[in-house]
Design a protein that fits this description.
Helix content: 25-40%
CATH class of the largest domain: Alpha Beta
Distance between the termini: 72 Å
CATH architecture of the largest domain: Alpha-Beta Barrel
Number of domains: 2
CATH topology of the largest domain: TIM Barrel
């Protein structure tokens, strides 16, 4: 610990009622499903009926901890922590790199004072911004002075904003008391292994007790510190989300054991993310040709782990200076030059009123989904995937050609369940469609039965249909889940009437449109 502690501003006593709740969750071996009932006790897709009120208040408007909230609420990261105490083979912290969207990348590094001004500017411009996170570009706890000074400044002027940090966990046990003191209620720990034999292939070195350690010894210390830190957070009632990077051939099978280990220590949520690996990123894995998982491989692993613990599936692997809703980046609107020239009027009451309107929209979405749940018994054990083009707010509001990603929902007798997103190449450029880009879009969503869009042109519509993916623009600017379920009920009716044959979709599957007579 080379940086001085920040003066004590807040009481270090944790909220006892939250700690009691979290301890019970830990005794239940974490947040997840109970027995074989499938009933969620907490998690990104859960609602107020699924968890204690105290926990719901912490997560209801946090876009990372609540899948539903991410449609409506924004977050921001401030890049005040440049140093790191470990090296990961998938990481290359880049400065002034505006065209890459991945962790560790920033365009500007900020002082705590600049960060505080930026938070106020963003919160005044984007009143649905509810969460401030410090996630780098290094590790916040390798830069404790800058990290906690930033939290102190923001807490004094904007106490309504939730505070988060994301850490590799090596220094976490040393700073849990400080985290509690500054009322940082949400901590993300990146845990990629609980076996040093695996970890030595992910981490070239760690810097520990003024020494650089490598190999098995380094990985052993790292995993011990990570799990100890997680236990300490749980004891203090601080919600912990675990990030794990899925690296095929290295830790993909092992992440099932990671999932069990973090659940048993009271983790709230597990986020298994795909390795981002390309030579131009300059990472070890990018340069040695290590591939990332396919979307289908990632979903299969998430599905396997979900039986033990609820999964976060809506992560966008944000930059360390991200601003806005998950999946969008408005950081260019808030450069240091711009915010320092701003006259910021932080209107806490105005923000509160705006967020009340957001909650009303959110509740309307929930009620709309409920209205479509009746009549799904005919689905039996059928599950199908659909893709959705959306700009956010839980609405089908994006043109097919303008979509940079598609949100994926699983439809079944239980309703509509968000299961992930697929990044794609932009199809429409300068008013013209790119056929090569369309091929990549079809490949990205080829396990889906349908794609919902606000608008779509004739050529891509024909190509999607030929690929067995039904393009649907009849529900433009309506709620995603309500629309998907309404379409699904029509699909079930056609299957029951014998008009179509339901076929499981895989990479080469052919779906709807085959007449029963042709199949027989």
């Amino acid at each position: 610990m080379t940086e001085a502690l920040i003066p004590d501003t807040y009481s270090s006593e944790p909220a006892v009622d939250i700690a009691d709740v979290m301890q019970k969750l830990a005794e239940h071996k974490g947040c997840g499903t109970e027995g074989g009932s499938g009933k969620a006790s907490c998690g990104s897709s859960a609602g107020p009926a699924d968890m204690p009120e105290e926990i719901w208040e912490k997560v209801k408007n946090h876009p990372c901890y609540s899948e539903e909230a991410h449609h409506h609420y924004a977050r921001m990261h401030v890049a005040v922590a440049p140093a790191c105490n470990i090296q990961c083979n998938y990481c290359n912290r880049k400065y002034d790199c505006a065209n890459e969207s991945r962790p560790g990348v920033v365009s500007e590094r900020l002082t705590p004072e600049q960060a505080s001004k930026k938070v106020l500017a963003v919160a005044s411009t984007i009143p649905q911004m509810t969460v401030l996170g410090i996630a780098g570009p290094g590790d916040p706890l390798a830069n404790p002075g800058k990290t906690f000074e930033t939290f102190r400044l923001i807490s004094e002027v904007a106490p309504d904003i939730k505070l988060c940090l994301s850490t590799n966990g090596l220094a976490l046990p040393d700073w849990v008391d400080e985290i509690a003191k500054y009322k940082v209620d949400h901590v993300t720990i990146t845990i990629n292994m609980v076996d040093p034999e695996v970890g030595q292939h992910i981490y070239p070195w760690i810097f520990w007790e003024n020494k650089r350690l490598q190999g098995y010894e380094a990985a052993k210390i790292l995993t011990e510190r990570q799990l100890l830190g997680l236990e300490m957070l749980t004891e203090r009632g601080i919600l912990a989300k675990i990030n794990s990077v899925m690296i095929p051939g290295i830790n993909d099978k092992h992440l099932v054991e990671v999932n069990k280990a973090v659940k048993s220590r009271g983790a709230f949520l597990h986020n298994i993310m795909p390795l981002i690996s390309a030579p131009e990123h300059g990472t070890v894995f990018g340069l040695n040709g290590q591939r990332g998982p396919t979307a289908q491989e990632l979903k299969a692993l998430q599905d396997e782990c979900e039986g033990d613990m609820n999964m976060m599936r809506h992560c966008r692997q944000c930059r360390a200076d991200a601003v806005g809703l998950l999946g969008e980046d408005r950081s260019a609107e808030f450069t240091t030059d711009k915010i320092m020239a701003m006259e910021v009027n932080y209107d806490a009451e105005g923000r509160k009123a705006y967020q009340q309107a957001v909650e009303a929209e959110r509740q309307a979405k929930v009620e709309a989904k409920k209205s479509e749940l009746d009549g799904l018994d005919a689905a039996g054990d059928m599950k199908i995937l659909v893709a959705v083009a959306t700009k956010g707010h839980g609405i089908i509001n994006e043109h097919f050609g303008h979509a940079k990603e598609f949100q994926i929902y699983e439809l079944s007798a239980k309703g509509a369940k968000f299961v992930g997103h697929r990044r794609v190449d932009l199809y429409c450029k300068g008013g013209y469609g790119e056929e090569d880009a369309l091929d990549t879009v079809i490949k990205a969503i080829n396990d889906c039965h349908a794609v919902f869009v606000a608008k779509i042109g004739g050529c891509p519509k024909a190509d999607l249909t030929a690929a067995g993916i039904e393009p649907i623009d009849a529900y433009a600017h309506e709620f995603i889940e309500q629309s998907a379920l309404a379409w699904f009920k029509g699909y079930l009716a056609k299957v029951e009437a014998g008009e179509i044959v339901h076929t499981e979709r895989g990479d080469a599957a052919i779906r709807q449109g085959a007449l029963l007579s042709q199949a027989s």
